[in-house]
Design a protein that fits this description.
Layout lengths: L2 H27 L13 H6 L6 E8 L4 E4 L14 E11 L6 E2 L23 E7 L3 E8 L7 E2 L7 E6 L8 E11 L2
Antiparallel strand pairs: 1-9, 2-8, 3-4, 3-7, 3-9, 5-6, 5-8
């Protein structure tokens, strides 16, 4: 036998040994049941990337009804928990008198409510959002519903339900509707 043949056989045996050793090590390091890592996106990432929310609901708010809520059921449970993300889009028009003056959810621009309105200092005839913990009460300050367009994370330690209120001193002569679309991403 030539020296080159022996050298080739020895090289093949060494390569076969190394291949077996690498396979054995890999089977110990990576169990057979291992699967690729699943990427878990945060509620904020899912909202920002436009993924399907956990809850997607539309609520109609008649102009002559002082308030509606999310969830829109009697004795509302808390639905928004710390870390949850929500996006509220609002549109529609509420007529605020019998003569036809109408406003969207942002209310009457530049005309702020005084005493006698539910929320003095906020625009007249606007949609106001309130956060309420069942059973403890109000959490945070009232705000304009239109400010919650886009992804917002609930950072309070208290779970809440949402209330939408017409900032009008007389809803009895109102008509029309505002529509709220709530996209809720659970943490």
């Amino acid at each position: 036998m030539h020296e080159n043949d022996r050298s080739r056989r020895r090289g093949r045996r060494v390569l076969a040994f190394l291949a077996g050793l690498i396979t054995a090590i890999a089977s110990v390091v990576t169990p057979a049941s291992a699967s690729p890592t699943t990427l878990v996106l945060s509620a904020m990432d899912r909202c920002l990337q436009g993924f399907t929310p956990n809850v997607d609901v539309t609520i109609d708010h008649p102009g002559n009804v002082p308030s509606v809520g999310y969830p829109n059921v009697a004795d509302q449970p808390n639905v928004l928990y710390p870390g949850d993300v929500f996006d509220i889009s609002s549109d529609g028009s509420v007529r605020i008198d019998f003569w036809g003056a109408s406003f969207g959810p942002a209310g009457k621009s530049g005309d702020f409510a005084g005493a006698g309105y539910p929320f003095p200092g906020y625009p007249k005839y606007s949609s106001i959002i309130r956060f309420n913990n069942n059973p403890s009460g109000w959490v945070g300050s009232p705000d304009l519903t239109v400010y919650y367009k886009g992804c917002h994370q609930w950072t309070s330690p208290y779970p809440v339900r949402l209330g939408f209120i017409v900032n009008d001193d007389n809803v009895g002569d109102n008509g029309g509707y505002w529509h709220y679309r709530i996209r809720h991403y659970r943490a």
